[in-house]
Amino acid sequence: MRKLICFLIILFPLVSISQVVEITGNASFFKSESIQVFKYKNLLSENKQLLTEITIPENGDYTLKFDLDTPQEIIIKIEMRELHLHVHPNSNIKVDFHAITYASNQRNPFQFSIEYLNLPKNIAPDSIYHFLKSDFANKQLEIQVGTELAIFYQEFFNHSDSIYENYLSNDTLFATYYTYFKADAFLQTTIPHSVLIKQYILEKPIVYSSREYLKFFKFVMSGRLNNFISKNPKTIEKAKKEYKIYNELIHITSEDSLLGNKETRSLALLLYVKSNSSNTYFDTKTKASIISQYGNFCPYKVQSELARDYQVSSEPFKINQEAPIFELENKFGELVSLQSFRGKPTYLGFIHSKSSTCQKDLLALEALRKKYRKVQFLMVLSDRDSVLINQIPKETNNLKFLYLNKTYAVLEQYQIWNFPVYYLLDKHGYFIQSPAAKPMDMFETFTIMTAPKSRRKNYEIVKP
Questions:
Q1: Which regions of 71-139 does DSSP assign to beta strands (E)?
Q2: DSSP, residue by residue, 282-347
Q3: How far is CA 77 from the centre of its chain?
Q4: Who contacts 414 (Cβ-Cβ below 8 Å, separation ≥6)?
Q5: Which tens digits make up the pLDDT trace of 69-124?
Q6: Is residue 5 a contact partner of residue 39, using CB atoms and an 8 Å limit?
Q7: In the predicted model, what is the mean pLDDT of residues 215-232?
Q8: Which of 48, 171, 184, 258 is the S-S candidate for 38 at Cβ 3.0 to 4.6 Å?
């Protein structure tokens, strides 16, 4: 009896803190495709960790099970399409994926339906986020001319605090989302930004696990950083030359009393440098230099890790780097390797037959391949469902087409998220232009095809 009691004592906490999440549903449109579930390892770098992966069966019915320690956002991925969901431990969700009626590119969103079969008590499903936004939008319609927005919004959120009290007390994910939704609303009022910064940022620990926080933080800090940097152009130019741009910028931003904490300044600078807002003052090389120095000088682990991840994941293919090898099918269903195109310069393109831009490029390509007969033109057709054959020119000795046929690894390998994208390779398979100009722009610049012979000694020329 004593052994049984001890066993139950040990078993009870294991049962009570079970963290399994189960997602079921039907995705018959994607039968035989891989379906994956990821979570963010770090929202700053947006690096993902695979939680589970299965192949969708012929009838389309699937079941995904994985462990989750805390409430967080997950990503369900089929092919190159992604569905983002807020998920809690111990929940059971039904997600059905429906046929896609419009598929102009690989990043088209899903058509789906979501039903929460089971959630822990006081947990907010995605529908609650929708209700909050709808309530807020409807409330805005009631605003009268001359009404002070800050007062009107404060009344709305005071009322909402009581409505969502259980969720705010028991659901950390919803509480974070709600807090920064409120902060974002008040940004549109006459309340000084400095007051909002103090209330929602400086008096709270930095939240690296919330998209809403990071979005709000980046927005409110961007203008301040622009202001500091515009006043110190000579200092920044000198810091670039001495390779101490990160430290100098941290010093400059410390002039603002609202950015007194070094971690706050460092995060603000990092998000600013990664955004387009900084393009006015920093070119790509300088941005890379700043992020690189984060790995060497930043004292905060989560930020320095991002710097190292960012360097690896976002660096484009360098000139003189060897192009990644892939194998795809031609129109006869035969596997063709990129390696077989060595021996001549190769103009490599990733296109989509339903894209109007790609269709215009194909017209230019027809003339281009006639002018440069010693150049190989290899186009990868990246359509997901069907190819508009009437938009594709006939193959010739120096114009070839390969088809993905649901093999999407090559798009991730070449970081292709939009179409078209082109690369120019020398006869040894190394990048000459990365990315390359579009076909219409290559008529005047194709003299680069006569580039000097590579100095490399250890290469293998494979003649087609």
A1: 72-78, 81-87, 92-98, 111-118
A2: --HHHHHHHHHHHHHH---HHHHHHHHHHHHHHPPPPTTPBPPP-EEE-TTS-EEEGGGGTTS-EE
A3: 12
A4: 324, 350, 421, 423
A5: 888 889 999 877 888 888 889 899 999 998 766 544 444 557 888 888 988 888 88
A6: no
A7: 87
A8: 48
pLDDT at position 447 is 58
What count of residues does the chain have?
464
Cβ atoms of 261 and 227 closer than 8 Å: no
pLDDT: which is higher, 212 or 137: 137
Burial of 373 per CB tally in 10 Å (0-12, 13-18, 19+):
exposed
CB atoms within 10 A of CB 407: 13
Q: Which residues are bridge partners to 114 per DSSP?
A: 95
Question: Do 287 and 278 touch, CB atoms closer than 8 A?
Answer: yes
pLDDT for position 448:
52
Strand pairing partners for 396?
A: 399
C-alpha dihedral (174, 178, 181, 185), degrees to nearest 10: 160
pTM for the predicted model, two decimal places: 0.64
Q: How many whole angstroms separate alpha carbon 194 and alpha carbon 228? A: 16
Poorest-pLDDT segment among 17-26, 58-67, 308-317: 308-317
Burial bucket for residue 448 (CB in 10 Å: 0-12, 13-18, 19+) = middle
| 8 Å CB contact between 91 and 56 | no
Residue 341: is its pLDDT beyond 90?
yes
Give the pLDDT confidence score for residue 316 in this predicted structure: 67
Contact (CB, 8 A) for 46 and 305: no
How confident is the model at residue 455, as a pLDDT?
55
Pick the range with the lowest mean pLDDT from 77-91, 105-119, 221-235, 281-295.
105-119
Q: How far is CA 125 from CA 208, 232, 272, in A?
A: 22, 48, 32
Closest by CA to 106, choosing from 387, 422, 416, is 416
Q: Please state, in angstroms and rounded to a whole number, the distance separating the CA atoms of residues 377 and 75.
A: 36
**Is the pLDDT confidence value at 179 over 50?**
yes
